[in-house]
Design goal:
By secondary structure, the protein is of the alpha+beta class. It is about 30% helix and about 15% strand. The strands form two sheets. The chain has a three-stranded mixed beta sheet with strand order 1-2-3. It has a two-stranded antiparallel sheet with strand order 4-5.
């Protein structure tokens, strides 16, 4: 069995995942999701109903759905403001790709590439949400695990 001491690539998801996970419910509005992104500084929320993961919403999903005139008092029309009233279940990714906390970081990266997603909810064996791992989490791990080599400086004679 590889350990992180033997191989820096043997790091598990539980060692790099983000917690707590910011969650929303299916009937929450896009305004609530947008406000959550601003207040928590996150880019993904997990959609939970009865403690089960039903989907994921990214900041890009919300941006695609909102009118570009929302918040612009000179140009905002009633139909623009109404885009904030849309519900999470209308835009969420309905087949969330998940990963377990004991899986390796490389497995998460491979799954993200294959499924073309930027985050994976982390669920335990019972399906309970325990964290989230994002591309940013993986990049931060890679930079810390694989530091850039220092340039060799030659001393002039």
């Amino acid at each position: 069995m590889l350990t992180s001491a033997d191989n820096p690539c043997a790091i598990k998801i539980q060692d790099i995942m983000s917690r707590p996970v910011h969650t929303v419910q299916m009937d929450d509005s896009l305004k609530a999701v947008r406000d959550s992104f601003f207040s928590h500084g996150c880019h993904h929320v997990v959609v939970l109903e009865r403690q089960k993961v039903y989907g994921v919403v990214s900041d890009r999903d919300v941006l695609k759905e909102l009118s570009p005139f929302v918040g612009n008092q000179a140009m905002e029309r009633p139909q623009d403001a109404n885009t904030l009233k849309r519900r999470v279940h209308q835009i969420m990714s309905r087949t969330p790709v998940t990963i377990g906390p004991d899986e390796f970081v490389a497995a998460a990266a491979q799954r993200m590439i294959e499924k073309r997603v930027s985050s994976l909810p982390v669920v335990d064996k019972e399906g309970k949400l325990v964290g989230i791992v994002t591309q940013r989490d993986i990049l931060k791990w890679a930079v810390s695990a694989c530091p850039l080599p220092q340039p060799v400086v030659e001393v002039a004679k």
